[in-house]
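Lab notebook page, bench 4
Experiment: in silico fold of construct C2
Operator: M.H.
Input chain length: 183 residues
Purpose: comparison with the prior construct
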Amino acid sequence: MIIDDDKLAQSDQRVQEEIISAVETFNKDIVVYQTNGFEAKHLTNVTDSILEDLAFVDFESGFDELEQYVDEIQMQYSETVVNLDDLDINQIHSEWIADVEAFVAYNNKLKIRDLEGYKDTSYKEIRTYSLKYDDKRKKWLIDDADQVPADGFEKDKWDKKAELSGKNSPVMKWKRKGSVDQL
């Protein structure tokens, strides 16, 4: 009798829940990361290779430039729907990897300097995640994430899905130093 470890892992409810949790954690961390000057320390469940890649990208200088035009950024994680039909778990050599796609939505606003009110910058995406199981940390970590814009109807076509609401997620804010709140 041959046992297919990949299929066994793919149908394991606990493994699915751990992967779903890793995806949701990453989606929530993105808000904190972006409202804290793109400091990589706010990405709590990514692989070392992601952190190393971020070290070569100078998001912080771009953020400093943005600061000249923006008084405030408000971001809120809104929702994740994980497409479990698309979940693929494999063991390559001794390493467990997984790929999955999810619909993700964020409610965002920008307060642009010298303009009245806020500009709505909310967005929806389909993200494709690559994950690796980290034996030392005993959890799944995001190893890559690609995204394309979404309209929100994509998730309606998925048969097997995990819907995660960010209804009670906090609104994270970044304010330019010296900006004045408008009442």
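Observations: Residues 5-175 form one domain. Residues 37 and 62 are 9 Å apart (CA to CA).
Next step: discuss at group meeting.
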